[in-house]
Predict the 3D structure of the following.
Amino acid sequence: MSRFIGLLAAAFCLAMPARAAEVSVAVAANFTAPMQKLAQVFEQETGHKALLSFGSTGNFYAQIRNGAPFHVLVAADDETPLKIEKEGLGVAGSRFTYAIGKLVLWSKQPGLVDDKGDVLRNGSFARIAIANPKLAPYGAAAVETMAKLGRLQDLTPRLVQGDNIAQTYQFIATENAQLGFVALSQVLTDGKVAQGSAWVVPSGLYAPIEQDAVLLVTGKDNVAAKALMGFLRSDRANVLIRSYGYGL
Amino acid sequence: MNFPLNRDAWEAIVLTLQLAASATAVLLVLATPLAWWLSQTRSGWRVPIGALVTLPLVLPPSVLGFYLLVAMGPHGPLGQVTQALGWGVLSFTFTGLLIGSVIFSLPFAVQPMQNAFESMGARPMEVAFSLRASPADAFFSVALPLARPGLVTAAILTFAHTVGEFGVVLMIGGNIPGKTRVVSTQIYGHVEAMEYAQAHWLAGGMVAFSFAVLLALSMVRKRARQVLL
């Protein structure tokens, strides 16, 4: 009998968390749109609330090192979460890859970017935008792509750098730069490139952009933080993440 | 230990000083007549124009930077003018940064000058006119010399404020070494890249520089007061 009550209590706890908790999440700029959607579903499923802050991974790292009150870091790379774990700021063994980023060459101008990326060879444009390759994995992937195509030297004088991938997108969206490399997730709406022209860069041209999440020690005892880490690995989350143009 | 300031850092420092010097020069030319007009006019436009000049003081740089980016773009009003003149699009260029800096620092140039012109009162100019000085002559040989402390304050503040500018540069600069990567954005880049040693050298230098500027400013003001007494 007591076992039955125990089971019942356990089932009850699983079905409805005794208390809805809050988790503060630092989210890489490129994952803004999917994370907002994920947070909604997460809240519906668990009753926990995820408070999202968006920014660059490097900035978050500096803030976390200096006591920022985040519980989970959803990073744009795999190096920062690793570093955080090694430095004892993250919970050991909590790291995992939640998405693999895809790079796209995009222009707001229809027809400027062809579906083979030949525009990099013979296109006439004044500025090509990338994210700062020192800071943003998508920037590093863009540089790698241009180098593999043998175009880096020629294009370097025309490069302008956004501080992060969101700013890079802004440069192109306002047409201050005619084209540029951004995350596929930024230009997809309902699974299609919504405007302009785009070339999804073949994955062989750059090292995979593995985006990892890590549970921070500040979130070790936070129910909502742990639930979110589990949720990000769930099938439902994975389907959603893929629909935004990420691989897994 | 490596030498703390590498070539990139020096490049950024030189560029920052060039930008600040150019912005100061442009603003002394633009802001002097504007400040004079604001101090003398009885027009109904005085108050709205004065508010407009002060606007960059209260607007966050992200607002200014965003509007500048849109305005300078190929479809923006500024971009269309510059393209028609054959100058191309000015975002991501030194000229673009200069325009941004001039707008950003405008109140820091206008207000000290305006105060100086106003505190001078009407009397010196009346005397000059009674001695049959032309308006231009009176302005250059009476008003400007009397307002000199205000001009010096305006120049120092503009220079320092441009050196300390960050948000606008970040929004319209594009981080191009030697062209648009100034010290403040360089520091930010170092911090984000977790290169804290380099960040410390530049950031510490910035603190020392700003302190020295404010010290110089208060010395200028003290001397001006003594001269007036």
About this structure: The domain at 103-200 of chain A is CATH 3.40.190.10 (D-Maltodextrin-Binding Protein; domain 2). Chain A has two domains: 2-100+209-243, 103-200.
